[in-house]
Amino acid sequence: MNIKIDPLIIGHKSFSSRLMLGTGKYRTLHEAKCSIQNSECEIVTFAVRRAQNSNVSRESNLLSILDWKTLWLLPNTAGCKTAEEAIRIAFLGREISIAIGQPENNFIKLEIIPDPTYLLPDPIATLKAAEYLCREGFTVLPYINADPILAKQLEEVGCAAIMPLGSPIGTGQGLQTVSNIKIIVEYSNVPVIIDAGIGTSSDAVEAMELGASAILVNTCIARATSSEAMASSMQLAVKSGRLAYLAGRIEKKNKAQSSSPNTGISIPV
Q: Could you say which of 3.40.50.2300, 1.25.40.20, 1.25.40.10, 3.20.20.70 is the CATH number of the domain covering 17-247?
């Protein structure tokens, strides 16, 4: 039986894949392109600052070699340290979306990170920028610490999804914020997308089984020994985790319970 995964709805846009990919840290552009294809993702995120500061030619730039008829761009404000800076970069991101042929694309991944050591997002600046960008018609996906109260506040100001970290960016530590992620999933009426900390496919399965709507990964694929193989693994993991969540796991018990009936078994005297 071929069971289809239910679609992911963000704002007014529907996606069949629940895996999103970042575009940084790959060894080559070819490797990045092949990994994106193997992942079967539909959303890729791209740092607007990288597009601004790129020294490579347009022909070799990743933006120019991807098929934007099948992929959806999620510009991000990575590198911004203040709300004001992130807002300015968000408007530039919208221009990039228009330039690649997606004039209706108002998506923005909002990242504001003033901490250079642990790369933790600024909750106050993120809420401030999110409120402004939502009023300006952006489909805002804010990257945050796994803070249930902040997640609900961001939803209330109009964010289309919430992106709590599983553990610090690029660490590959897996889900270190499970308890808070569970609360965020329980409270949220918008998609919860786990972003940062995923190290391998088992982490992705765990995130999806918790009820996360999707995951966004970059380092674990880009820095894997075989990026293309890890991308395929992540694609399968996200599907498997979502199906397990929808199926509903059995209740955990303290005592063993036989799976075979006891009828017809003679008990020796």
A: 3.20.20.70
Give the pLDDT of the chain (269 residues) as one tens digit per residue. Answer: 566 779 999 999 999 999 999 998 898 999 999 999 999 999 999 999 876 565 544 434 888 889 999 999 999 999 999 999 999 999 999 999 999 999 999 999 999 999 889 899 999 999 999 999 999 999 999 999 999 999 999 999 999 999 999 998 888 888 999 999 999 999 999 999 999 889 999 999 999 999 999 999 999 999 999 999 999 999 999 999 999 999 998 888 888 877 776 666 665 65
- Which residues form the catalytic set? 109
Can you give the C-alpha Rg of the chain in angstroms? 20
